[in-house]
Structures are given as structure tokens and as C-alpha cells.
């Protein structure tokens, strides 16, 4: 296992994620790769994703923390900033990454993105268009997808 | 010391007066040695009625202003030694019962001294004339003690040596090594910030543009 040359920071972050998890977020490292995390985020209350349990995968590249973690939704989700492959459009995962950010802050940002979809900076053109033309309808679709794909199974 | 004594009476406002006048008095007594005029002025203003205000626990204290409380304090400067028997038992019990501050015996003793001084002053106003260095020290000590409860906490914990804080680098999350500051004032390990600048050219904390040239080696202070 590669954990012997795992940076101290990753060990520290992992310990803290396990001992003091953020509300509505769980992240645990894979047994065979300490840089690969299985993540679950609960849909925030008063969002179309409320009641859903969303699985994600998070990977810390070799350059981490100088490079951002790679994060992707595994659970299907109807969101203007998340595409059908689960890729996330979030600035701190791209050009706004900073080595002072952490796994925890990234996951909190993703949780916040679920509460505040941003159709003006879309990843899924169709969903964004839907959101902008009839938000109520788009929200209904998002709720339905949550029931269908994220109902905790 | 009146401070603790009055605390028993829950006269917190008066305590503030006392505390400030104590400091004034210390200054006044010291300046007396240099210029007698200042002290003479004070002594002339001692109104007997106001001394009564400090008589004992049963008397309701009225805020009299700085001068009023200053005067009795001036008077009692020296008489610490012989009256302890007179008011010890009651004052001791009272202090013990009513005040959390009095857990330390040393402080209670000083209290008693001061209380007896106050009692005695009503009878022997003449005694005020010679300032005594011992009492000034006593007052200074008490002022420090009474002025903040957190200080009291420190006194209680004093046996354990205080722990030096450890500051961690936001990048490696370990203790800072050869800490350096960006021009925006954010501090990192030397190697961490250099790696971050190579990767991004921005401050990891505030994202301002920074260069390695502008980094300043800083030395964090210790608590001692």
C-alpha cells in the first residue's frame, strides 16, 4: 500500500474527516488507495435534492495540494452545473483552487452548489436552459431524479 | 483589601471606584515624597462623613466619586498590623462564604488587614500622615489580583508551565518550518509557499498575486 509515502497532510485530513465529519457529508478513504475517497453528500434541506443521498468519488492527484482534488458525482443528478457523467462545474476545482483549501472545504462547496444551482455558468446546457426558462419545472425534474436515483439505496 | 470585601456586598460599581482610586492613591503617595503639596491637598479634603461610608459590611455604600473614596484610602495607609484580632473571624467567614475569589488564604489575609484598617480609621484619623511602603506594595498586589478574574485563573493554574502555541502551515497542515510571509501578510512554511507560488503565483489564502522574491522570512514570537 502506498500510504507509507502519503503526505502527512493527507493523513491529517483523513483523520479529521473521519473523526469530525461535516454535517451531511461523509468521506472515507478506499482501503487499497488512500488517495481515493468514497463520498456521500445528503441533499440540503429546502433544495430539490432534499432527502437524497448522493454518492461521489474524490481522488487526490499526486500534486495535491498544489493541484485540486478530482471529484465526480456517481449518483445521477439533475443540476445545471453537473453533467451526465457527474462532472462538476465549480471554480475552486479549476482555476480558483488553492492549496489552502481541503477535502472538507471542497465537499462543503459542492453541498452549497446543490443549494444554489447557477444556470448562468452551466455545464449541462440543456438543464441550464430548462432552469432559466421554467425554473419551477426544472426543480420538479430535479426532485423526481432525486427520488429516482438518490433515495438512499 | 476592600476590593474583595466589597465584592461580598455585591457592590460592583464601587469596586471600580476603589480599584481606580487605589491606583491613584499609590501614585499620590509616591508623589508625596517628591512634592508634599499634592498630598496635603488630598488630606485637607478628607470629609469624615465619607469615611463612614466605608465603615463595614452593614453600611450601604453610595458612590461618592473618586475623591470621596480616595480619602479613606489615604488615611489607612499604615495600620495593618495590630487590629487583626478585632475583625478576623467575621470577615474571614464572610469572605469565605461569599466570594469565590477568596479561596487563596493569602488574599483573605490581606483582606482582613484592609478591613481592620478601615474600621480603625474611623477612630484614628491621625494615623494617615505617614505613608508606608509596605502598604503600597500590598495595594498594588491586590489591585492586580482584583482587577481581573482571568488573572486569578492564571494564579490558580500557575504550577503548570504555559504551553507554547503551535502554528500550523495552511498548506502542509503541519507546524511551520522556516515560516515566510507573503506581501499580503499570510504565513506559510518556506518550502510550501515556494511550491505554491511555482504552481499558481497566487497567495493560497487570499489569491493575491505574489512572487517568491517578495517573500519575507518572519519569526513568530513566543509567549514568554
Automatic annotation (TrEMBL), chain A:
Task: Tell me which residues make up the UBC core domain.
Answer: 5-151
- The scientific name of the source species is Acacia crassicarpa
> Residues in the active site?
89
- List the lineage, top down: Eukaryota, Viridiplantae, Streptophyta, Embryophyta, Tracheophyta
- Note the Pfam families from the entry: UQ_con (PF00179)
Q: Which SUPFAM superfamilies match?
A: UBC-like
The record's annotation in SMART domains points to:
UBCc
Domain of life where this protein originates: Eukaryota
The Gene Ontology terms for molecular function here are: ATP binding; ubiquitin conjugating enzyme activity
The UniProt function text for this chain reads:
Catalyzes the synthesis of non-canonical poly-ubiquitin chains that are linked through 'Lys-63'. This type of poly-ubiquitination does not lead to protein degradation by the proteasome. Mediates transcriptional activation of target genes. Required for postreplication repair of UV-damaged DNA and for adapting root developmental programs to suboptimal availability of iron.
Instruction: Return the CDD domains for the record.
Output: UBCc_UBE2N
Family indicated by similarity: Belongs to the ubiquitin-conjugating enzyme family.
Q: What is this protein called?
A: E2 ubiquitin-conjugating enzyme
Automatic annotation (TrEMBL), chain B:
Q: Does the keyword Zinc-finger apply?
A: yes
Cellular compartments per GO CC:
SUMO-targeted ubiquitin ligase complex
Q: Which is an annotated GO molecular function term of this record?
A: zinc ion binding
Q: What is this protein called?
A: RING-type domain-containing protein
Any GO BP annotation: ubiquitin-dependent protein catabolic process
Q: Identify the Pfam families for this entry.
A: zf-C3HC4_2
What UniProt keywords apply to this chain's record, in alphabetical order? Metal-binding, Zinc, Zinc-finger
The answer to keyword Metal-binding applying to this record is yes
Q: Where is the RING-type domain?
A: 169-207
**Upper taxonomic lineage:** Eukaryota, Viridiplantae, Streptophyta, Embryophyta, Tracheophyta
Amino acid at each position: 500500500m502506498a500510504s507509507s509515502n502519503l503526505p502527512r497532510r493527507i493523513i491529517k485530513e483523513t483523520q479529521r474527516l473521519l473523526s469530525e465529519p461535516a454535517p451531511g457529508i461523509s468521506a472515507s478513504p478506499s482501503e487499497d488507495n488512500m488517495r481515493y475517497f468514497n463520498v456521500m453528500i445528503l441533499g440540503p434541506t429546502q433544495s430539490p435534492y432534499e432527502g437524497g443521498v448522493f454518492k461521489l468519488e474524490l481522488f487526490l492527484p499526486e500534486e495535491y495540494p498544489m493541484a485540486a482534488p478530482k471529484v465526480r458525482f456517481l449518483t445521477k443528478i439533475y443540476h445545471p452545473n453537473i453533467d451526465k457523467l457527474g462532472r462538476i462545474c465549480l471554480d475552486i476545482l479549476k482555476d480558483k483552487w488553492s492549496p489552502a483549501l481541503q477535502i472538507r472545504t471542497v465537499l462543503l462547496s459542492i453541498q452549497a452548489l446543490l443549494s444554489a444551482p447557477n444556470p448562468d455558468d452551466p455545464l449541462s446546457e440543456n438543464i441550464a436552459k430548462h432552469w432559466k426558462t421554467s425554473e419551477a419545472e426544472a426543480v420538479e425534474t430535479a426532485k423526481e431524479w432525486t427520488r429516482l436515483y438518490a433515495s438512499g439505496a | 483589601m476592600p476590593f474583595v470585601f466589597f465584592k461580598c456586598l455585591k457592590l460592583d460599581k464601587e469596586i471600580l471606584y476603589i480599584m481606580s482610586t487605589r491606583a491613584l492613591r499609590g501614585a499620590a503617595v509616591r508623589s508625596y515624597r517628591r512634592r508634599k503639596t499634592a498630598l496635603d491637598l488630598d488630606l485637607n479634603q478628607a470629609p469624615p462623613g465619607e469615611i463612614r461610608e466605608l465603615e463595614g459590611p452593614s453600611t450601604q455604600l453610595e458612590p461618592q466619586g473618586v475623591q470621596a473614596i480616595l480619602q479613606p484610602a489615604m488615611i489607612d495607609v499604615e495600620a495593618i498590623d495590630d487590629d487583626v484580632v478585632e475583625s478576623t473571624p467575621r470577615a474571614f467567614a464572610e469572605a469565605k462564604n461569599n466570594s469565590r475569589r477568596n479561596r487563596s488564604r493569602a488574599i483573605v489575609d490581606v483582606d482582613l488587614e484592609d478591613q481592620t484598617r478601615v474600621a480603625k480609621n474611623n477612630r484614628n484619623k491621625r494615623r494617615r500622615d505617614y505613608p508606608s511602603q509596605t502598604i503600597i506594595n500590598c495595594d498594588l498586589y491586590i489591585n492586580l489580583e482584583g482587577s481581573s478574574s482571568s488573572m486569578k485563573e492564571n494564579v490558580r493554574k500557575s504550577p503548570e508551565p504555559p504551553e507554547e502555541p503551535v502554528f500550523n502551515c495552511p498548506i502542509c497542515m503541519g507546524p511551520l518550518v522556516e515560516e515566510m510571509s507573503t506581501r499580503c501578510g499570510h504565513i506559510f512554511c518556506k518550502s510550501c509557499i515556494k511550491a505554491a507560488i511555482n504552481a499558481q503565483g497566487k497567495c493560497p489564502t487570499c489569491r493575491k498575486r505574489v512572487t517568491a522574491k517578495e517573500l519575507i522570512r518572519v519569526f513568530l514570537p513566543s509567549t514568554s
